[in-house]
Amino acid sequence: QVQLVESGGGLVQPGGSLRLSCAASGGTFSKYAMGWFRQAPGKEREFVGAINWSGIVSYYADAVEGRFTISRDNAKNTIYLQMNSLKPEDTAVYYCAADLRQATAVSAYDWEYDFWGQGTQVTVSS
After folding, report:
1. What angle do CA 4, 16, 81 make, to 5 degrees?
2. Which of 38, 46, 49, 84 lies in the 20 to 30 Å Cα band around 106?
3. Per-residue pLDDT for 10 more than 90?
4. Rounded CA gap, 24 and 83, in Å?
């Protein structure tokens, strides 16, 4: 079993920045890929980005490409989502997820992820 705990959400003005963290426990963190997803009220959960085990490979949704950056610290069993130039449409609950079936590649499909955190709210508003 893998437990994931997100933190760092909050209220930020448009154009501002936030950094989310996701701490993992259980399993061997350095052996699996990780992803970030989000879900806005009344909308389906959507892919934000993902990172492979080493941090060398990452992939982002078009909506956040160039504004968001995922990184990981395997020594701390933690991944991060640095969010810059935030827009009101980025408002959502953000979830991290672990994909234990692959390490070198990344997936944008939520059904391929095995474990999920409880989510952290990000609100972008003036």
Report:
1. 25
2. 84
3. yes
4. 20
CB 70 within 8 A of CB 51: yes
CA-based nearest residue to 54, from 32, 77, 21: 32
Over residues 87-102, mean pLDDT: 95
How does DSSP assign 43-87, residue by residue?
S--EEEEEE-TTSS-EEE-TTTTTTEEEEEETTTTEEEEEE-S--
Pairing of strands 78-83, 18-25: antiparallel
Neighbours of 55 (CB within 10 A): 15
pLDDT bracket for residue 47 (50, 70, 90):
very high
- Cα separation, 109 vs 126, whole angstroms: 32
Report yes or no: 51 and 106 within 8 Å, Cβ to Cβ.
yes
Q: What is the pLDDT of residue 30?
A: 85
